Structure formats: structure tokens, C-alpha cells
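This section describes the prediction task in plain terms. A model, or a person checking by hand, is given the sequence of a single protein chain and must write out its three-dimensional structure as a string of C-alpha cells. No templates, partner chains or ligands are provided. The sample shown here is typical of the held-out split.
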Amino acid sequence: MALAIAANLSAQKVSFDDVLTIELKNMGSIIKNNEVTGYFMFYKVDKVDRNTNAYLLRILDANLNEVSTDKITESKHFSLKEASYDGQTIMLKFYDLKDKQAIFYQYDQNAKVKLKKTYPLSKQEIQMANAQNSEEIKSFSLFDLENKGFLNYSVVKNKDLGYEIRFFPEEGEKGWVYKSDEESKNYDVASFLAANDKVVFTSISSRPGIMSKKITYLLLGVDLSTGKKVFEKPLVDSKYKLQVMNGYTDETTGNIVLFGLYYEDDEKIGKDQSNGLFAVTLDNKGDYVAKKFLSWEKDVSKVLPVNERGKIKDVGYLFFHNIFRTSDGKVFAIGEQYRKAASGWGIASAVLGGGGNVGMAKMVVEDLYIMQFSADFTLESVKVFDKTRNDIEMPGGSEYVSPQLLAYLVKAYDGFDYSFTQLNKDKSVYSVGYLDWSRSAKSMIFGAVTWADNEFSTDQLKLKTEASSLRVFPGKPGYVMISEYFRKQKKLETRLEKINY
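The expected answer:
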């Protein structure tokens, strides 16, 4: 395999040939104490025979110097669904749909296999995988717990539909599996929220059937050591219904902070418009330690022009990608503006009787919003960063679905422009990265918004390229890593670029 590195002591650019197929989502940064120390990438490098392919895991350091590699031989039906890093090891999750298996490989940072486990795929998982185009739709089922291991969420068959949570710990600990009630007649979907040293917090959306609009949101707590249920209770307030969008662990107390939208008790989540934002702090029993509700009309409108039902005047809604606390106690929420609109392409396709599974609605993604809160979640300011409009066509039937629910589909399609948030070691500085189209430069650009010394600064990198696909990753302090794949040349190029602030 050919390898070319820029001619300097610390490589700032590296190129790999003979990369037969790669999806750039199958790469990632290796991060310790909030700082990038390296990268991992996994791709197909050779066809062994008519039924078998060779794949390569490659690990680089923060300067793109090669650290180690490992080649594995697997079925041609082998496909990487997700990759994650927990601070010690890398977990790769694969599907083999022919043999109906999920295969997990756990590697150390020297690309040595620590664990390989195979589990049967449920009929529901196979159906979902076959319905998805792996190059277009991201999976969100494998989660890393810093220095503790990995959680995998899967779909199983109960009386209707249920879930299974599997914990892969770091070496020396015993893993576990938590399963939903096999006798349940509800349609239950589980989503990871956050975890501390003792409890894993999971959101469960439960309804009587897949077509039912009556959804109950539950909060499930599972003991991290044993996999036993600690609590399961409705995710509600005495006055409101709650829809969680993000969560994180308060490192000083170990409590869990959940952030999202709240609704009147008689309204339907995902159909009706929300009343505003909420933040609640929970202990390890799932009980409220603190809670804060911010009305669109009374609170948010003081710093942001929104109507009383959460719609930003004339432009749409906000989808929150991340929420975190900095060293000074401030809390920041990173959101992106979106709205639903009629699709001219979808309407024309319907009129002409073609177009496949193209809907008559599209989602429009625009500006980046950064909300700043005090330690008690009082909204202090909102900063808006302009971006070029980005239209995402939706599948058939989307015209009947609320924009709030379609936003999650946009996330699965990787349709939002947001790339990542990176904090420095002591959490006093952070950068938010996003992709955008520059009309003046006539090319894609990578935009970086950096918070340092209590003020924002911005920088942009021109990304004019002929690559088949491109992605930007967080890099060592002051840098980002740009990776480009050229399908015809079977070549992968990565380079470090300086970000100024």
C-alpha cells in the first residue's frame, strides 16, 4: 500500500492510496482530556476472493504520523455501521446482513484487537438496515463512556417492538445486557442520554403501536456496574411534558443535566409547538435536584425574536446539537436554524408521476445560534452566525410530518451544517465548527467560531476540492484535520489546517 507524507518532521499532510471504499463517517478523533491526540480510520483495501474482502484499521498521531495498523479479513457483506473511542480503546460495530450478525471489534491504540464479539441481528434491525442507504444515513446506537467502555442500543421484537442495551466495559470488568419487557405490547424506542460513574440515563419513547400518536416519554436509570434497573419513571413535570434533546454529566456533582423543550400537559410532543426551553438536574435516583423553564414568549424573546410558540420569527425553529459547561460555570447551547418548506422538485416529480421516494416537502437549514446561560440557566445572550441556506429533500410522506420530527431525519441524513464542538483541556476555550457554501469563493468553506477571553472570534477555511467526499475533524490545539476521499483515484488525503482566534 502506497503512503506519502509531507516532507517535514511533523507531518501536516498525508495521502493513502489503494483505498477501495471508505465512508468518512468511519473516521474519528482520539481525544484525551478534551485534546486530540490522534485519529483512527477504517476502510476496504483489497478483494481477497469473490466472497471475502480485506479491511484496514489505521491509527495516526495528532500530527498525522502513522502509529499502527491492523488488517482483518471478513465477508464482502461486512459493513462498518459506527465507530467510537472512549479515551482508552476504539470500538467498531459491523453488520453482516448475509449471516444476520452484528460484530464488535475493540482495539487498543496500537491497533491490537482486545475483544471480538458476535451477536445475532434481530429481524427488525435487518429490516431497518436494508431500508437504509449506509452512505447516506448515520446510525446513532454506539456510545462511548469516557475511560469506562461502550454502550450499544439495539432494536428487538417483543409483543411489538422493544430495545436492548449492551455494555462493553474496559478490561477487568464484566459487561451486561439490559432488555425491555418481552411481554410489553408497546412500541418502545430507547435513546442514550448521559451517564456518570454509577448510572446510565436513557430516554424511552413508548406508545401503544407504531401508528399511535399517543407517546409517553420515560426516564430509565440502569446501574452501570450490574446492569440492573435503578428506576423507570415518566419524564414529566407537574405542569409540563418534557422532550429531551441533550444531556451531560456535571463533573463537580456527578448529577445529570438534561436540556430540551417543554409543552403544555395536554399537548402532543412532536406535533404541537413547544412552550420554551427547559434544563433539569437529576440525581442517581432520577429525582429532580433543580429545574428551570424558559418561555419563548417571556424569556427567550428578550434576546431573540421568537413568537410565543418557539418559532423564530419568519425563519423557523432551532435544533440543538450540543450543550456543555465551561470552566467559569457558564453553559452554552449550540443550535442550528431550520424550517419546513414545499419541495418544488418533489411536487414536480409527483405531477410527472416519477421521482421515486421523493416527498413534496423539504427542510431548509440556515444560521448557527449559540445561546449563553448562567450557572442557574438564566439566558444571558444569543449570538447568531450567518450561513448560506441549505435545502435537504425529504422522503415521500414528509409533507404530513411535523418539522420538529423531520429535524431528527435531517440529523440522520447528516444534513445539518454543524460539524463538532471542541473544548480545550481546562474548558476555558471552545470552538464550534461547521460547513458552509461561500457564494463569493464559489466553494465549500469550513467555518470556526471560537470563544476565548469572554468573546467570540471567527475564521474560515476555503475547501475548494474535486474530492468525492470531504469531512472536517477536530485537531490538536489551534488546528482542524480535513479528510478528502477521491473515489476514482482510490485515494484518501488528510491534512492539518490552522484555525486562527
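For orientation: The first strand starts at residue 3 and ends at 5.
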